[in-house]
């Protein structure tokens, strides 16, 4: 039971990092990114290819340290976001969202069909977990929990400092009224690009953490449900524009997700075979409840995010 709880904390922390990244893009900048999976996916595969042993089945296998894998995930996710920013950020609202979802699925299908690149549908196995071979499986779980929690805290603090700085006020200005921000002399496209790139780099870290914890990745691991829409549900539950809220949302939603396993276990055998659909139904009910009962989420958006905007 303790091992199960540790696993829950690690995965919730991993999703919490992704939720912070999406909150930076959507909550503070107004970028409706439905392509989280693209950067989650790229971060996971980049770190896996850099840190696994050499293999004839795919490109990479350099056997580098875990920290190098994380840095590689950050760099490649950021480069991908930078390249995509030029065409994608010229679209607005729903058009931007759909374009990002299409890009995410395109990347997933490329990796799925190009076996020489990432071993296709067979995926990559043997992704190393830090210190696992030195301290054993049980202790390495605690160490990995410490790593995930530390990264979650670091990104939370960085996000808090960022959104409460002059840069953060620019993000909010662009979100509230892009034309007015431009009339005030702000380069709104550049501000959006910065938010998009920084958020995508954090998403890459989240994907890398997932890969090293599970030890195996394949294209089926990064469906839109598990890499995009569940993260959106987390920030809607926690409260768009609240960093504390989205972290809480990540822990609650992931708790509901894994808790549904116990519910499915007591259902009739005919329904148990449709466990995936039952889980999706639960997520849908949770989303409806949020929108009907508390549309602002558990934590509403802060009206004042810096002392400059207060009466002090």
Describe the protein's architecture and organization.
This protein has one domain. The protein contains 14 helices and two strands, in the order αααααβαααααβαααα. By secondary structure, the protein is mostly helical. Strands 1-2 form a two-stranded antiparallel ribbon. The N and C termini lie far apart (49 Å).
Give descriptors for this structure.
mainly alpha; 312 residues; 14 helices; 2 strands
Topology (SSEs and partners):
Layout: H1 2-27, H2 36-51, H3 66-88, H4 93-113, H5 115-118, E1 124-125, H6 132-135, H7 137-163, H8 166-176, H9 178-183, H10 188-214, E2 216-217, H11 224-238, H12 243-265, H13 269-272, H14 275-293
Antiparallel strand pairs: 1-2
Helix pairs in contact: 1-7, 1-10, 1-11, 1-12, 2-3, 2-4, 2-10, 2-11, 3-10, 8-10, 11-12, 11-14, 12-14
- Total tally of structural domains: 1
Unreliable stretches covering 5 or more consecutive residues: none
Radius of gyration, Cα only, in angstroms?
A: 20 Å
Derived from helix and strand composition plus strand pairing, the structural class reads mainly alpha
Terminal Cα separation, in Å? Answer: 49 Å
Determine the fraction of residues in helical runs and give it as a percent range.
Answer: over 70%
Strand percentage lies at under 5%
Shape: globular
Listing every helix as H and every strand as E from the N terminus to the C terminus, the arrangement reads HHHHHEHHHHHEHHHH
Strand order of the largest sheet: 1-2
Largest sheet: 2 strands, antiparallel
Count of β-strands? 2
């Amino acid at each position: 039971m303790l091992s199960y709880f540790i696993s829950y904390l690690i995965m919730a922390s991993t999703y919490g990092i992704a939720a912070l990244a999406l909150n930076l893009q959507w909550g503070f900048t107004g970028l409706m990114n439905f392509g989280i999976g693209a950067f989650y996916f790229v971060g996971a595969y980049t770190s896996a290819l850099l840190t696994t042993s050499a293999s004839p089945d795919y490109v990479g296998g350099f056997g580098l340290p875990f920290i190098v894998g994380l840095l590689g995930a950050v760099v490649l996710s950021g480069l991908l976001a930078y390249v995509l920013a030029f065409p994608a950020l010229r679209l607005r609202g729903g058009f931007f969202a759909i374009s990002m979802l299409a890009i995410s699925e395109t990347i997933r299908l490329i990796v799925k069909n190009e076996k020489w690149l990432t071993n296709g549908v067979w995926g990559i196995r043997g992704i190393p977990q830090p210190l696992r071979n030195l301290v054993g499986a049980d202790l390495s779980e605690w160490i990995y929990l410490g790593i995930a929690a530390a990264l979650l805290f670091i990104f939370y603090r960085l996000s808090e400092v960022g959104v409460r700085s002059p840069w953060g006020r620019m993000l909010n200005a662009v979100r509230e009224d892009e034309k007015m921000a431009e009339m005030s002399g702000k380069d709104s496209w550049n501000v959006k690009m910065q938010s998009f790139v920084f958020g995508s780099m954090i998403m890459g870290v989240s994907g890398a953490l997932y890969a090293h914890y599970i030890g195996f990745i394949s294209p089926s691991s990064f469906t839109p449900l598990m890499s995009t829409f569940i993260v959106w549900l987390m920030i809607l539950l926690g409260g768009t524009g609240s960093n504390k809220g989205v972290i809480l949302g990540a822990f609650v939603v992931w708790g509901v997700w894994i808790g549904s396993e116990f519910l499915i276990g007591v259902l009739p055998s005919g329904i148990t075979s449709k466990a995936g659909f039952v889980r999706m139904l639960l997520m849908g009910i949770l989303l409806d409840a949020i929108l009907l009962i508390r549309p602002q989420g558990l934590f509403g958006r802060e009206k004042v995010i810096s002392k400059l905007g207060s009466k002090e």
